Write a sequence for this structure.
């Protein structure tokens, strides 16, 4: 804790001017970018995670029994169920290192026909996509293998350009050739028609069977609208309950100050999302609600210290009590923010998808929450308390007359 009290009240105008400037930057980014980069759960349509991976093995089955082919890690498993029992055969990469080795081993099984057009591909690079486990038939089932290719995000965009309203993002390392594709819904579109349109467009550009669908999600227009309204309602209800809680625990000046600071935190995080074009999804709403709780906890700690100091020394000016209370709580709030950032930093760097975006949003939210708890909320409490004191003086003067 610093030896001298931090002059929080002296810095109040600088803190709020900085906050307003940053909020205006976020609002400008929102206008320039025509709103948020909505995820598929808020913007109805199709979302697919795909990987460009060439075909290295084709397997067909001419028997009458049920033959199922599955991929688990770097191993291939064949399961044939018939009247005589179940035949299970697992082909591990350690024993069958290449696609050619897999084809040779599969061909030893009755009524299985395996062809390896790219026999040098390694079994450890097998890709298990949408549709696996696969039931084998006389129509060959194609198996894909990941390679360090040169397909870029621009290539994917070019392949899907004719579909219109398509958004593409890179997933993971660039050499993995994994991408997130989002396609906006049109009139009379269905999940099947949109998935087929994407498949045909990618097949025409990269070759039939060369793109693996790792995951596919479809959100209808009605569900997306319901999710938007529910998310907004959840944030409003959270703010209202916080206002009531702090009003009862402290008094109205504390409650209003806390809620204004929380609104600042939410708007600041939304501004960052708009500025950097982060995807706005249900994960973002979860991050917003988490930040509200985190920031509120810090604010209550500081306000509790202010109330305690005021009760111990009723003659000291409120500005002095606020400066003293923030200084006394500073080590706790800074350490809390630092340890939380350390915990989520690896997720923000090494994770992918929704987990990574949650961690990134949390990181920005923690910074904004720490700033508002230590500077903005105390300053707002000072202003509101001064305004209430003036009102009380005026009211007493009127009553005396």
């Amino acid at each position: 804790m610093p030896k001298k009290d931090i002059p929080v009240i002296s810095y109040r105008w600088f803190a709020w001017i900085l906050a307003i400037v940053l909020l205006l930057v976020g609002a400008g980014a929102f206008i320039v970018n025509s709103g948020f980069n909505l995820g598929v759960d808020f913007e109805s349509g199709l979302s697919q995670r795909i990987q460009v991976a060439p075909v290295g093995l084709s397997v067909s089955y001419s028997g009458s029994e049920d033959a199922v082919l599955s991929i688990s890690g770097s191993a291939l498993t064949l399961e044939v169920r018939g009247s005589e029992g179940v035949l299970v055969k697992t082909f591990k990469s350690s024993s069958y290192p290449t696609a050619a080795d897999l084809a040779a081993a599969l061909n030893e099984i009755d009524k299985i026909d395996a062809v390896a057009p790219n026999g040098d591909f390694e079994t450890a690079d097998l890709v298990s996509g949408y549709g696996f486990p696969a039931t084998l038939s006389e129509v060959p089932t194609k198996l894909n293998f990941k390679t360090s290719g040169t397909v870029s995000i621009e290539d994917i965009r070019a392949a899907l350009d004719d579909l219109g309203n398509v958004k593409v993002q890179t997933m993971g390392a660039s050499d993995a050739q994994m991408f997130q594709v989002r396609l906006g819904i049109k009139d009379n579109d269905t999940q099947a028609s949109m998935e087929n349109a994407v498949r045909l467009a990618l097949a025409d550009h990269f070759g039939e069977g060369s793109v693996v669908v790792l995951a596919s999600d479809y959100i209808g227009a009605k569900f997306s609208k319901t999710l938007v309204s529910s998310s907004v309602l959840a944030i409003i209800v959270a703010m209202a309950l916080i206002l009531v809680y702090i009003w009862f625990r402290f008094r109205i000046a504390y409650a209003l100050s806390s809620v204004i600071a929380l609104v600042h935190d939410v708007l600041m995080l939304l501004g960052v999302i708009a500025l950097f074009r982060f995807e706005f999804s249900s994960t973002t709403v979860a991050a917003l609600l988490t930040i509200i709780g985190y920031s509120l906890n810090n604010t209550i700690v500081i306000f509790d210290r202010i109330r305690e100091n005021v009760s111990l020394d009723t003659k000291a000016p409120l500005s002095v009590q606020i400066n003293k209370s923030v200084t006394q709580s500073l080590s706790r709030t800074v350490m809390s923010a630092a340890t939380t950032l350390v915990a989520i930093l690896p997720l923000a760097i090494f994770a992918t998808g929704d987990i990574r975006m949650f961690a990134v949003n949390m990181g920005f939210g923690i910074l904004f929450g720490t700033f508002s708890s230590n500077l903005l909320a105390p300053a707002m409490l000072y202003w509101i308390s001064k305004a209430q004191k003036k009102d009380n003086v005026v009211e007493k003067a009127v009553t005396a007359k």
User: Anything to note?
Assistant: The chain has three domains: 12-42+222-390, 45-51+149-219, 53-141. The chain is about 55% helix and 20% strand. Residues 257 and 381 are 5 Å apart (CA to CA).
